[in-house]
């Protein structure tokens, strides 16, 4: 009786961790510069395609492609940040939404042009396949790997933000940009690096997502919605908030699909609207 | 511009001057009759354009004039479409009353939603409108017994309009019908915009905190215009259901919400003709380019969006207005010297 429930909880938590990796970058960007970056999942998709290409065309091992996916997404995002995004930091949300939706459209079309609209096949290495028994429960190895990666990333992020000089600058910029500038912190540089970091994490998430949800050109929009839900429910700029929200959304989505399949995604949207009406700034939001 | 502003002393004088019909507007509306002779094979497309223009007009009222960004406006379009489609499917195929019914249902839901909408701004507002659109889409998808789910609503049978004009294959009646409805609702929107209420909407767009200090209840105004916009969007949806005699899930999907925002921004938000011009350009371009490769069509839409945001912040009409203003200034300078 209790076994399946824990199994669903575990799958939901693993799915939530995937959403966390995909969304934490956006949360920081939104919280820091109030920039609504709807092309965030396009960077995740880029990471996914980098992994697919390296594995299928060049025969790289899966784990070796992950850092490359991270770096590729980070560098491409820096390019767009310098050329397009920075001009709109002071613009209205609508302009930012339109520009980044435009970028996402272009990325979807480019992905469809290069790779076609089919799902990309990947062959996971044998040590990440199958499942192991733990306390009488069958847990998927890949999902364990996912949870482990997400926890490691969270730990690294929290340590970096809490205990390094750069982290202190980022936190100061999030809390009060003008004051941070006044103290001589280079807010623009801090933002550019954080932006690249966030997009890189999205790229990493995109690579890790292939095994769970597949990869096709619509990825940039399908998961954008989940990412936005996580970010707005968790509260802008809050890593802990994103973590909690991602876990909550992941578990309720998997549980909803498992126990009330005919409702589909209905439950998730309802949860989001009710939470936002209750707390417009998100669960852990400051404003 | 200075001389015009100087000549009008009273607020009512200003509004009347704004409401006066300009020759170019009359020419534009006469030009909508051209498709009958120039493109008789494309009347179905022309009817789709008129419907899209009406939908864009409804979004313009809230986004362009009141500054309420909505990424889920297709919800009302779809509600109107399903209402009219279901009415016709279950034995009431009279078009005009079906249209009104679609508008009323969308309006009721819009009024209920407006109580939520008017409380939020910025990102929370975008997310809530997006969520409500997705919620409705998921609901329509799950309620397959009512809506036909992913297969769409089949078996919509329309009666002839006024028992005299039945919908033909070439879309002649459909275009006339859509055009007349568009024109009537355009007149309504024009009246609203050129009223003191319309003026206070623009005030809310510019500064929603100061407007209450002037005695204009921001939230009540937002509720009002949001409901009106929902009604118009519902009527547009009902028109689409009646002229195509089918309703698909796509009619309330995210894609349609995003498309209509693109159309409005492209044409120029906050201008009555913005949605109309945008709809013509968008729909004709899509018809020409998307034929065999629909996914690449979005490459150009994306490029267009980036270009509009970067170089034409007020859309095509805004760019034209700036151009004519420069010309006029040059002309008057030359005339003076």
How would you describe this structure in keywords?
heterodimer, A: 287 residues, mainly alpha, two-stranded antiparallel sheet, 11 helices, 3% strand, B: 337 residues, 16 helices, 73% helix, globular, disordered N terminus
Which residues of chain A sit in consecutive blocks of at least 5 with pLDDT less than 50?
A: none
Widest sheet: strand ordering of chain A: 1-2
Strand content of chain A: under 5%
Q: Structural class of the helix and strand makeup of chain A?
A: mainly alpha
Helices and strands of chain A, in order, run as HHHHEEHHHHHHH
Major beta sheet summary of chain A = 2 strands, antiparallel
Overall radius of gyration of chain B: 21 Å
Distance between the termini of chain A: 43 Å
Average pLDDT metric of chain B: 85
**What's the number of extended β-strand segments of chain A?**
2
Structure description:
The complex is a heterodimer of chains A (287) and B (337). Helices cover 74% and strands 3% of the residues of chain A. Chain A has eleven helices and two strands; from the N terminus they run ααααββααααααα. Chain A has a two-stranded antiparallel sheet. The model of chain A has no long low-confidence stretch (mean pLDDT 84). Chain B is an all-alpha fold and 337 residues long. Chain B has 16 helices and no strands. The radius of gyration of chain B is 21 Å and the shape is globular. At the A-B interface, α4, α9 and α11 of A face α8, α13 and α15 of B.
Show the helix and strand layout:
The complex is a heterodimer of chains A (287) and B (337).
Chain A: H1 2-33, H2 40-58, H3 62-83, H4 93-115, E1 131-134, E2 137-140, H5 141-163, H6 165-175, H7 177-182, H8 187-213, H9 219-234, H10 239-259, H11 266-278
Antiparallel strand pairs in A: 1-2
Helix pairs in contact in A: 1-5, 1-6, 1-8, 1-9, 1-10, 2-3, 2-4, 2-8, 2-9, 3-8, 5-6, 6-8, 9-10
Chain B: H1 2-7, H2 11-19, H3 23-31, H4 35-38, H5 43-65, H6 74-89, H7 95-117, H8 122-142, H9 144-147, H10 172-193, H11 196-206, H12 218-244, H13 254-267, H14 274-289, H15 294-311, H16 315-336
Helix pairs in contact in B: 5-10, 5-12, 5-13, 5-14, 6-7, 6-12, 7-12, 10-12, 11-12, 13-14, 13-16
């Amino acid at each position: 009786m209790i076994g399946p429930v824990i199994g669903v909880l575990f799958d939901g938590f693993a799915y939530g961790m995937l959403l966390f990796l995909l969304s934490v970058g956006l949360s920081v960007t939104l919280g820091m510069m109030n920039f609504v970056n709807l092309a965030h999942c396009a960077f995740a998709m880029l990471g996914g395609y980098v992994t697919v290409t390296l594995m299928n065309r060049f025969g790289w091992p899966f784990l070796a492609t992950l850092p490359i996916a991270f770096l590729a997404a980070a560098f491409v995002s820096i390019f767009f940040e310098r050329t397009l995004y920075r001009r709109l930091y002071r613009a209205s949300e609508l302009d930012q939404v339109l520009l980044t939706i435009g970028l996402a459209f272009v990325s979807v079309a480019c992905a469809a042009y290069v790779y076609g609209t089919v799902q990309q096949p990947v062959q996971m290495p044998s040590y990440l396949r199958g499942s192991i028994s733990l306390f009488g429960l069958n847990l998927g190895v890949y999902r364990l790997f996912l949870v482990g990666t997400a926890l490691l990333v969270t730990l690294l992020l929290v340590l970096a933000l809490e205990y390094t000089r750069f982290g202190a600058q980022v936190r100061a910029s999030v809390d009060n940009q003008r004051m941070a500038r006044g103290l001589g912190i280079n807010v623009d540089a801090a933002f550019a690096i954080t932006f690249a970091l966030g997009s890189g994490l999205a790229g990493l998430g995109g690579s890790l997502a292939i095994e769970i949800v597949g990869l096709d050109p619509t990825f940039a929009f399908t998961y954008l919605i989940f990412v936005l839900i996580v970010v707005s429910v968790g509260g802008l700029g809050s890593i802990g908030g994103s973590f909690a929200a991602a876990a909550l959304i992941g578990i309720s989505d998997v549980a909803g699909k498992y126990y009330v399949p005919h409702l589909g995604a209905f439950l998730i949207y309802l949860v989001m609207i009710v939470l936002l009406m209750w707390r417009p700034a998100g669960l852990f939001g400051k404003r | 511009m200075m001389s015009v502003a100087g000549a009008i002393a009273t607020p009512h004088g200003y509004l009347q001057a704004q409401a006066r019909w300009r020759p170019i507007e009359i020419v534009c509306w006469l030009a909508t009759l051209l498709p009958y002779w120039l493109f008789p094979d494309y009347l179905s497309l022309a009817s789709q354009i008129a419907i899209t223009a009406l939908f864009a007009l409804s979004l313009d009222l809230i986004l362009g004039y009141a500054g309420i960004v909505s990424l889920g406006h297709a919800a009302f379009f779809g509600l109107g479409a399903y209402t009219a489609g279901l009415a016709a499917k279950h034995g009431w195929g009279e078009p005009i009353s079906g249209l009104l019914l679609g508008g009323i249902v969308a309006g009721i839901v819009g009024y209920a939603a407006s109580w939520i909408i008017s409380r939020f701004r910025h990102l929370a507002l975008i997310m809530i409108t997006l969520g409500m659109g997705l919620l409705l889409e998921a609901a329509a998808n799950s309620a397959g017994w009512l809506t036909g789910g992913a297969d769409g609503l089949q078996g919509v049978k329309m009666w002839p309009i006024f028992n005299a004009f039945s919908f033909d294959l070439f879309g002649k009646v459909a275009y006339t019908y859509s055009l007349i409805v568009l024109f009537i609702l355009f007149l309504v929107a024009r009246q609203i915009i050129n009223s003191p209420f319309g003026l206070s909407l623009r005030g809310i767009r510019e500064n929603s905190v100061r407007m209450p200090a002037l005695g204009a209840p921001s939230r009540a105004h937002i509720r009002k215009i949001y409901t009106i916009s929902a009604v118009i969007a519902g009527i547009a949806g009902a028109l689409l259901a009646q002229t195509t005699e089918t309703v698909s899930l796509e009619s309330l999907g995210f894609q349609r919400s995003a498309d209509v925002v693109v159309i409005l921004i492209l044409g120029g938000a906050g201008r009555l003709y913005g949605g109309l011009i945008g709809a013509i350009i968008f729909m004709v371009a899509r018809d020409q380019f998307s034929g065999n490769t629909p996914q690449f069509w979005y490459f150009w839409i994306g490029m267009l969006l980036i270009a509009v945001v970067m170089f034409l912040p007020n859309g095509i009409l805004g760019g034209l207005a700036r151009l004519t203003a420069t010309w006029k200034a040059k002309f008057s300078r030359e005339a003076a010297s």
